[in-house]
Amino acid sequence: MILDAQPDIEVVAAVADGAEAVAQARRLRPDVCLLDIRMPKLDGLEVTRVLAGPGVENPFRVVIVTTFDLDEYVYGALRSGATGFLLKDSGPTLLIEAVRAAAAGDALVSPSVTVRLLQHVAQPRRAPAPVNDPLTDRELDVVRLIARGRTNQEVAAELFVSLSTVKTHLGSIFAKLGVRNRVEIAAWAWESGVVS
Amino acid sequence: MILDAQPDIEVVAAVADGAEAVAQARRLRPDVCLLDIRMPKLDGLEVTRVLAGPGVENPFRVVIVTTFDLDEYVYGALRSGATGFLLKDSGPTLLIEAVRAAAAGDALVSPSVTVRLLQHVAQPRRAPAPVNDPLTDRELDVVRLIARGRTNQEVAAELFVSLSTVKTHLGSIFAKLGVRNRVEIAAWAWESGVVS
DNA sequence: AACCGCATCGGCCGAACGGCCGATCTCTAA
DNA sequence: TTAGAGATCGGCCGTTCGGCCGATGCGGTT
Predict the structure, then answer these.
(1) The domain over range A18-121 is classified in CATH as 3.40.50.2300
(2) β-sheet with B84-87: strand ranges across
(3) Which of A6, A109, A181, A191 to mutate to test the interface with B (most CBs of B within 10 A)?
């Protein structure tokens, strides 16, 4: 009712379970599919994988609507190919905006879920960081290349410096991070978000 | 005007530059601060770091509003402590919802920005996976330890096998993943989610 | 019984790595 | 002006890595 009241939105079908959702979606080819996580026969995440998962040629735009905001559902849904994740307490405004966003190829996620996503995305500042002794910009350059699997020779070539310089920087990095080999540098880089 | 028309929102100040934004925010202690990226004197990201950056004791809720949706601005803003990121073409509805979400401690990000964030967050499934030749369980054991920075000797000790066995497994892993050194194994492990 | 994938082990060797020493140059701050 | 931090470079040396050969045993499948 909420959606159908919008002039730019038309509800073309409403189904009772996941299997029917897949069937009707393929028949009607709607611009957007609204799915609940909890559905009979086929799970909402399963349906998402079928309709929009990796490897699907003409993926549907899927918005997950659910009352459960557990992290495992969120990540599972987004990994399955969902372009939206709404909690049922989000109110009609966000529901409408989520559908419009999905139709445009964008994604709207519930604010209470987004705030947790951002903690994992943009705030990877963590404990093993060199709090007492931060890395210099140049050392970070070396870290980023090391973390991608470059050898010292390749790092030297890409930074236009000599092999000795790279090894010197590496020594400083080892001391500052308190690690013993380049793979631990890579692990630190991935954990702290220096590379992604 | 848009915000003040809402019954649950009151605009308490409007400033002309970043320095004034910091001063007024500290004086009025608003529930939410709306900041533009482009501001005289103090950059919007600078203001965000001062008001909501890591290490601030009573952080403000900051929503960035801008016309520029470059990735560097988005990540910079969110890393600086912003709890929202809106493009100016988002329409009044999302602006209002973003303020409400920020006041509640949540975060609303423009759908067109969110869709790019999700690609980096929830889609770490990537090409270099061994599609044609999956790793065995034992090889995955080795991969996990290597990715954490263990030397071959340490891997051997933790798996109760000899150094030769570890090196043999490593050879297989190199061939299957198509990589040339252990750091690339670590990078693959972090990207594909084998370790986290 | 024969085959094959997997795990296990050994030896050899060149290349890469990492530690340790010292050195010069530039820029900034005291 | 002096002191310090950062970036740059070189040499030496022991350890680790990674490639390449081979080998054994074990559990499945044909």
Answers:
(1) yes
(2) B32-36, B61-66, B84-87, B108-109
(3) A109
